[in-house]
What does this fold into?
Amino acid sequence: MHKLQEHEQLKVERHEKYDKLSLISWTHSLNSDEWGYFASYKIGAEWVDNEEALIVTAKRGMENIDFLGMFMTCFSSNLALESFSKIYSVDYDKPSINAPSLKGVLSPLIMLHFLGVVSRIKTLKRGYVHHSENQKKVKGHIALMKNERRNIIPKRYDRIYCEYDEYSVDIPENRLLKKAILYTQRMMQSIGEGNQRYDKIKLALRKCLAQFENVNCDVDMKEVSLIRRHKLFKEYAEAIRLAKTILRHFDYSINKVSSQEDSVVPFILDMSLLYEHYVYGLLYEAYQNKIVYQFSSLTGKPDFLYRSQSFKAILDTKYIPKYEKQELETYVVRQLSGYSRDLKILKYLGYDNVSEETLLPNVPCVIIYPKEGRGIINPFLKVPLKELCNKSVKGLVLFYEIAIPVPTLKD
It folds into this structure.
């Protein structure tokens, strides 16, 4: 068992089996020209071979991250559903790995991802559900053989065995989703108590359960494998995929939801992308349509563009704690400078008269980096972005740094 923190080196000889891993790569150290296997910005657990496993946890200075709080902020934005799936990956085809330090990461991520997707479903799908049951009056058509066996022979003349189809929301897809909602409710009860954001989770769960009030939660596990994704209903397609993941994650047993096992399914979580989504959740909450995520331009996709009548800026996240103690990398300066000269970006920001021949406008470039911060929920709320751009990067014009805290657990 190998255990590392982000950016730490795995001190082993170079071998093909390590080259195939996702959590480490053969590269040079951040602080020297030494080459070796170094962890990057990803945490998780994966198998090296049939006997050897690798675990990577959050970097020093970020050990107490409140992942539940980060995930909730991510899923509160307006990003497309597909973007969340890029944050993490899970491999259920391989055995679990004993990793106590990671057991509180994966389960809430999947659950909140699922809850966020289901919350976007506006209207439940309907379909024809086949019923076979005894009735006091004829409904549909009489099943002659079954009626004779169950009613005529035992002389139950007050009943008629009927078969009929009913157009209803109580279809297999909705039953699967409701089952997964109940798993999520049980899971959140076991991990959410004491978390300041748990009330929002309970509210979201109540809304989802109210929407599925007329749906049965009895799911035939044989039906689960037959339920297919619907290309025309993106929310349903993603919700069904995640519902299947949740049921498989707990081996189709709700009793395992609250278990405190130290083993985790092999998974990879991209912390850099998670922080990027987290910051966007904060920005979107504070500035709504003034902020745009990954605007497609001629020189690439900047993380965020901010546009208002009084202030315009290009923002980029860097998941590097204690960033203020490091020099700004040259490639970052070049990247943001390139964005500030991109005519497509400039015109989106409102510089309509700019062209290849005109003088370039002075566009502020902002680097956003993390730090631990207790008690601060969203530093952007009710504060104009211009006021937060008060820390200039030494030696550069209109380059600023903003430290945006990640939520941390109480000691």
Remarks:
- The mean pLDDT is 83.
- The two ends are 28 Å apart (CA to CA).
